[in-house]
Design brief:
By secondary structure, the chain is an alpha+beta fold. It has 10 helices and 11 strands. The chain has 2 domains: 72 residues, Winged helix-like DNA-binding domain superfamily/Winged helix DNA-binding domain (Arc Repressor Mutant, subunit A, Orthogonal Bundle), CATH 1.10.10; 139 residues, no CATH class. The strands form 5 sheets. The protein has a 3-stranded antiparallel beta sheet. Strands 4-5 form a two-stranded antiparallel ribbon. A two-stranded antiparallel sheet has the order 6-7. The longest helix has 13 residues. The mean pLDDT is 88.
Length: 224
Amino acid sequence: MTAAALADLAALLADRTRARFCVALLDGRAWTASELAGLAGVAPSTASEHLGRLVSGGLLVERRQGRHRYVQLASPQVAQLVEDLAAYAAPPDEAPVGLRAVRAAAALADARTCYDHLAGRLGVTITDALAERGLLALAGGFGLTAAGLDWFRTELGFVPARSRRPVARPCLDWTERRAHLAGQAGAHMCSQLERNGWIARRRAGRAVHVTAVGATALHDLLGI
């Protein structure tokens, strides 16, 4: 990457509205321009202009369904970039104000999606449990052990795909300041837990919560 290309990439995220769009899209879902405009409190025309720049810059992709236009993060690599930048950014100087803001911040810190895998205290706790049971090797970057591959296949139906995306990789958690599990295994675990009804998304945003049946299942599987 040249210095000019790096500067162009940084400029895409240097605007607060565009950065807010990218952070919102870390929930892994596709959003409409009007939904993102409402989130950021900007006019639809302003949102469309910002989204056009993000699409042209390769950070977002556009999907059209009928008359509706949706956008989402272009790839897991883009999600990793945004999450890593958030993790390295300085923590906010002020605590959230108001009951709704405090509850929202607490919910995100407790359990959330990081694009397509789990983050927050839940994500880090699961990662620790996998490592303690010898299923995940942490040295030199994350990797599933032979026992871990067998466990993921048996318990979660996971079979690694031939892909440039690693089977397991660490992702720095911006609230816990520690790594949680990402990569193919992390994404499969998140989708499988949601499919099983062990976690459920909250009304909006990235926050999730562990259901009653999920609490029992995670205790039985990983001692959480």
